[in-house]
Specification:
Elements lengths: L3 H8 L7 E5 L4 E10 L4 E8 L2 E8 L3 E6 L2 E4 L10 H11 L37 H9 L6 H14 L4 H17 L4 H10 L9 H11 L2 H8 L7 H9 L3 H11 L2 H13 L3 H12 L8 H20 L11 E8 L4 E9 L2 E9 L8 H12 L12 H17 L3
Antiparallel strand pairs: 1-2, 1-5, 2-3, 3-4, 5-6, 7-8, 8-9
Helix pairs in contact: 1-14, 2-6, 4-5, 5-6, 6-7, 7-8, 9-10, 9-11, 10-11, 11-12, 11-13, 12-13, 13-15, 14-15
Length: about 400
């Protein structure tokens, strides 16, 4: 189901002494409703996950009712979370041009030394995140969730001061879309900004735009957009796997005939529970001989495949019904270093999954999203790693499998 990730996230977390959100799947959770936007048919909600306060934009389709200050309000319910392409486009057109409720009150915070013309650094210039806009976003905004809102506000400011420069406008529009997509999972606004940038199927963000269509409710719209090209892209393999188009993802991975594609083919099979096929893909990656070209990339991909292989072998032991009460810790290799997790089990249920230590810089929402999926599913099976932070997400899944296996009876 398209809104399953949102339901998973909400069902996994709670905030004491707050509002009650009744989900469309029947679960009730505690959180805080920051905004109820009836026109856009969405809520802005806040939750506490593992000590981290997280805000999400949630469509009415995911929620049955809310109770705020003792007053219960039944929201406009939909019989199905599947929308037509026209309905999704209408939603994008309505929500996309608007600012989130927090945008106006967020301060504009950036070093005045920045070159707001976003000129590319001259060849040979040293990295300087106090001058170059892209380097400022990479170093200062992306790794610090407390700066994400400020980063979005800043990119809006860059748009305003470069109104006469179409090249910078397009660059800033793409970055605005990126931020809504990877920071906030605000798919309507992300899609709108990518559309404003004129994104086509041959552009870098194409498959993230397709993912927005799917997350908003139209898998068909996503597939129609993807079908505009006959070329094979790595991002397409991952998205097809996430959408449950496993056979097509496998076929594409085999056709691409590359270790990165085989890794993604294995991920698609693992997500679908086709573990024998996943294992075959991962083993193919591990056994790939080096050709002297980009050996570091090959080694990283092989390390990821080996970690995924090891996790698959632990899946049976990681069954929470076989795990004794307690808190277990383990780690797995992320992008920068080991990602450590702590998993608490009580009464044959996963009560908490926390990322206790990491050195990831471009992790985006994976630190909260992946643990939330694991808690809601009560398993490491069928959990998909977050787009744009796949390596970090994989590490959390694999470390959780190791931790649960420690307590297996």
């Amino acid at each position: 189901m398209v809104t399953s990730r949102i339901l998973i996230f909400l069902a996994a977390i709670a905030l004491a002494h707050a509002d009650t959100i009744e989900l469309a799947n029947g679960n009730k959770v505690e959180g805080k409703v920051l905004e109820n936007n009836a026109e856009a048919k969405q809520l802005t909600v806040e939750f506490n996950l593992g000590g981290t306060v997280t805000k999400r934009t949630v469509p009415y389709a995911s929620v049955k009712a809310i109770t705020v200050n003792g007053t219960r309000t039944v929201l406009a319910e939909q019989k199905s979370t599947t929308l037509t392409p026209a309905e999704v486009q209408a939603l994008i057109a309505k929500v996309g041009p608007t600012d989130p409720d927090w945008f106006k009150s967020t301060k504009l915070n950036y070093p005045k030394t920045l070159d707001l013309s976003w000129a590319p650094p001259a060849q040979g210039n040293k990295w300087n995140n106090q001058v170059n806009v892209g380097q400022f976003i990479w170093d200062i905004i992306n790794p610090n969730s407390s700066r994400w809102r400020e980063g979005t506000k800043f990119v809006g400011h860059v748009l305003d001061v470069n109104k006469s420069d179409p090249t910078i406008q397009k660059r800033a529009q793409n970055e605005m879309a990126n931020m809504y997509f990877r920071f906030f999972q605000d798919y309507a606004r992300a899609a709108w900004w990518w559309q404003q940038a004129g994104t086509t199927i041959d552009d870098g963000p194409a498959f993230h735009l397709a993912e927005c269509y799917w997350r908003l409710g139209s898998k068909q719209m996503a597939l129609d957009f993807m079908n505009q090209t006959e070329l094979v892209y790595l991002d397409a393999i991952k998205l097809l796997g996430d959408m449950g188009e496993t056979d097509r993802a496998v076929k594409m991975a085999e056709y691409y005939d590359d270790h990165d594609a085989w890794l993604l083919g294995g991920d698609a099979c693992r997500l679908a529970g086709r573990l024998t096929e996943a294992q075959a893909f991962y083993e193919k990656v591990v056994d790939t001989p080096g050709d002297g070209q980009n050996p570091n990339r090959l080694k990283r991909t092989q390390n990821r495949a080996q970690a995924n292989l090891d996790a698959i072998k632990l899946f049976e032991l990681a069954d929470v019904s076989k795990v004794a009460d307690g808190t277990y810790k383990a780690s797995s290799l992320g992008y920068e270093a080991q990602v450590e997790v702590s998993v608490t089990v009580r009464g044959k249920k996963i009560e908490d999954v926390k990322v206790t230590k990491h050195r990831e810089k471009q992790y985006y929402s994976s630190i909260t999203d992946v643990p939330a999926q694991i808690i809601a599913k009560q398993s490491v099976k069928g959990v998909d790693a977050t787009s744009r932070a796949t390596i970090t997400g994989e590490a959390i899944i694999n470390a959780t499998a190791k931790a649960l296996a420690q307590g297996a009876k």
